[in-house]
Design a protein that fits this description.
Length: 365
């Protein structure tokens, strides 16, 4: 790949956050210069369903040759960017308490239906962390259950259903964020388990997700000294490539969690972290705050690292190929369909049958 071709494609490795209810000019120019892998929507990007649908439509078409991922954290419970009139789902712990795989499937089908109605194509769900530590401030009721086997069974059901309905799923946060006692948004959590315990417990839901054909996985900003005693998991080749890619034989797309979270950003500048994440084996980096200078600097840093032989071109080409394969599987090529509007859109959201599923889940709060 020539230097100019590399520069034109490198943005495929970025999932970018932005501010406001429309695509900002800075993001358009970034997509024009470097291409762009996708965008991630937060509450700050959401006004009403029609606006989200129009925004998703525009975002998906920013790079004519390859549609963008339009992604969101829509888990249910306290991590949900889309509020009423979308169905508001109870936390995932309710599914674990119900133990009902069919209920998990009905939830995932309804969730996929509403995401598709507004043009979202990738949901960073399900959480595959196991709720083994009641003091965990960041996972808690986001986890499906306290037992690895239950998280594996229900997580795989959600993945199969979401993806069967055309929404790419994301298993998170590898190698497991369940048994931590600090919040990775604020500092780097420590996981003190030996490798044998991680293989027997923490890895089980991720193995089930791989068997279910999960399109994407997300790394955890956690420090696991038994696996790598120098780098957090997201930036660790031992964790991302040796274990997730080679040992567990995961062939899909690996995303970093947001590189601006303090767990990583307190120690590593975002552009340096982006290079390290790709080098470790991630196929895409999330940079979520909406600081387009930082996003651009991260892409420049990856290009320079390749030019200076600090990052192998073959690793970047591998990441680009994985992104392309996943997009060919989930994103229709050519012109995206115009979004639903008005009554057609409103009747797709918060429907009675979806509210009934949410109410059934809420019985297990």
């Amino acid at each position: 790949m020539s230097p100019s071709a590399l520069r034109r494609q490198i943005g495929q490795l970025l999932i970018a956050g932005f501010n406001g209810h429309q695509i900002p000019p800075e993001l358009r120019s970034l997509a024009k210069e470097f291409s762009l892998g996708g965008v991630i929507l937060f509450a700050r990007n959401v006004a009403d369903p029609e606006q989200v649908a129009e925004l998703a439509f525009e975002a998906s078409r920013l790079v004519p040759e390859l549609p963008l991922w339009v992604s969101v954290d829509q888990e249910g419970g306290r991590v949900a960017r889309l509020k009423s009139p979308f169905t508001e789902w109870p936390p995932m712990a309710t599914l674990g308490r119900s133990g009902d795989e069919k209920l998990a499937e009905r939830f995932a089908r309804a969730l996929a239906f509403e995401l598709k109605a507004v043009g979202i194509t990738l949901d960073y769900a399900p959480v595959l962390d196991i709720h083994t530590n009641p003091k965990n401030p960041v996972i808690g009721d986001r986890a499906l259950a306290e037992k690895a086997e239950e998280v594996a069974r229900l997580g795989a059901a959600i993945i199969r259903t979401l993806q069967g309905e055309g929404i790419a799923a994301c298993g998170k946060h590898f190698p497991g964020h369940g048994d931590t006692s600090t919040d990775s948004h604020l500092e780097l959590p420590l996981v003190e388990h030996p490798p044998d315990r991680l293989r027997q417990v923490e890895f089980l839901p991720f193995k089930a997700a791989i068997e279910a054909g999960v399109a994407t996985m997300m790394t955890a900003h956690v420090f696991v000294p038994s696996l790598d005693d120098t780098r957090p998991a997201t930036l660790s080749k031992r964790v991302v490539t040796d274990i997730l890619r080679n040992e567990l034989q995961y062939e899909g797309v690996i995303f970093s969690d947001d590189l601006e979270m303090k767990a990583v950003a307190a120690e590593y500048a975002v552009p340096a972290a982006a290079v390290m994440a790709i080098e470790a084996g991630c196929d895409g980096a999330l940079i979520c705050s909406g600081d387009h200078d930082t996003q651009s600097a991260a892409l420049e840093a990856i290009v320079h690292a390749v030019e200076e032989d600090r990052l192998r071109l073959a690793r970047v080409e591998d990441a680009l190929k994985r992104q392309q394969r996943a997009k060919e599987r989930f994103l229709t090529t050519g012109v995206a369909a115009r979004p639903l509007t008005g009554r057609a859109l409103r009747t797709a959201l918060g429907r009675e049958e979806h509210q009934a599923i949410a109410a059934e889940m809420a019985r297990f709060l």
